């Protein structure tokens, strides 16, 4: 049965709204029958794979950044909504065996990398779950640099020179999640991401992780996210409140294909932050 995207995911009361990250997920019945895609079909973090603890991974201590709300403001509405997003994704995982998740958005600057890092932190629960974030925006990577990590190669080198991705991971402390940085591509990033090497990287990583999140470039100006969405179990579309135009959201959903989009994360919605602050009296949004 075709999914009626607009009636299923409009900004109205039919949708469960939760905010930064406010998640507009498809109703359960729309995801239950979705077949798993072949890229991670054989993978499970517990199946015969050496535990991550047995593999030597560099641990790096990162400074809590202002937008890392689970660390900087764990009682605030942003952290609260991220926990809700985590809960909804875990429910979906129970239904669909969801493991790899693309994080994309219609336009540049909607908040993909911010949501991806926050969500990886939320899902990892300080190391209780094995969570990997892959920086697959090879045009304008921002995560590794924003976290102050030294450049030591990453996804680009795995795709171009068949480097072992496990050897280039960093474990981010105190977040408890892992990062495969973008690295520095020599050849065309779009072609690299479309290559068979990407599937091979995913195959070698997926046995080690409960979740693999993939931060990508925006959908409308580039084809990278669309091609990557075919190699993962589902995609989340980040849109920025009061900024991402509605027709850009429609265009992004149509480019990705509605069946590949699990839901929409509404980033930076001030309206619900104010409601939360007033309702629960924490007043976090009045603080500076
Ligand atoms: N909820 C938020 N509130 C305030 N600022 C935010 C929020 N989310 C993101 N930002 C800021 O907006 C800018 C863009 O965010 P981010 O880099 O996450 O977007 P992006 O979609 O990954 O961008 P790009 O398309 O360039 O990769 C950053 O400076 C970030 O700190
Ligand atoms: Mg980004």
Condensed summary:
By secondary structure, the protein is an alpha/beta fold.
Find the count of extended strands (DSSP E, 2+ residues).
9
Number of helices: 12
Q: Give the strand line-up of the largest sheet.
A: 1-9-8-3-7-4-6-5-2
Q: What compounds are bound to the protein? A: adenosine-5'-triphosphate, magnesium ion
Query: Mean pLDDT, as a whole number?
Result: 80
Q: Which structural class is indicated by helix and strand composition? A: alpha/beta
Overall morphology: globular
CATH architecture: 3-Layer(aba) Sandwich
Strand share of the residues? 15-25%
The helix content, as a percent range, equals 25-40%
Q: CATH top level?
A: Alpha Beta
How many separate domains? 1
Q: Helices and strands, in N-to-C order?
A: HEHEHHEHEHHEEHHEHEHEH
- Unreliable residue stretches: 1-22, 27-48, 281-288
Described by strand count, sense and barrel closure, the largest sheet is: 9 strands, mixed
CATH superfamily: P-loop containing nucleotide triphosphate hydrolases
Our measurement of the CA-to-CA distance between the termini, rounded to an integer number of angstroms, reads: 49 Å
Output the radius of gyration: 18 Å
CATH topology: Rossmann fold
């Amino acid at each position: 049965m075709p999914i009626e995207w607009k009636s299923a995911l409009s900004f109205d009361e039919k949708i469960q709204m939760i905010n930064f990250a406010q998640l507009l997920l498809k109703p359960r019945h729309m995801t239950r029958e979705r077949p798993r895609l072949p890229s991670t079909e054989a993978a499970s973090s517990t199946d015969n794979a050496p535990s991550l603890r047995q593999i030597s991974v560099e641990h790096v201590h990162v400074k809590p950044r202002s937008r890392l709300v689970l660390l900087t403001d764990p009682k605030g509405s942003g952290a609260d909504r991220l926990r809700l997003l985590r809960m909804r994704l875990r429910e979906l995982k129970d239904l669909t065996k969801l493991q790899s998740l693309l994080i994309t958005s219609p336009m540049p600057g909607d908040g993909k990398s911010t949501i991806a890092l926050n969500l990886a932190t939320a899902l990892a629960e300080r190391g209780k779950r094995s969570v990997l974030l892959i920086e697959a925006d090879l045009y304008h990577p921002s995560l590794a640099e924003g976290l102050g990590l030294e450049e030591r190669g990453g996804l680009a080198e795995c795709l171009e020179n068949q480097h072992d991705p496990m050897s280039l991971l960093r474990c981010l402390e105190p977040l408890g999640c892992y990062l495969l940085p973008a690295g520095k591509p020599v050849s065309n990033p779009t072609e690299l991401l479309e290559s068979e090497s990407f599937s091979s990287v995913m195959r070698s990583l997926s046995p080690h992780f409960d979740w693999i999140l993939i931060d990508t470039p925006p959908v409308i100006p580039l084809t990278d996210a669309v091609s990557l969405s075919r190699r993962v179990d589902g995609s989340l579309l980040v849109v920025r409140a009061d900024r991402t135009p509605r027709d850009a959201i429609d265009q992004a959903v149509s480019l990705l294909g509605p069946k590949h989009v699990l839901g929409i994360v509404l980033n930076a919605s001030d309206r619900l932050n104010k409601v939360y602050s007033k309702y629960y009296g924490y007043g976090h949004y009045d603080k500076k």
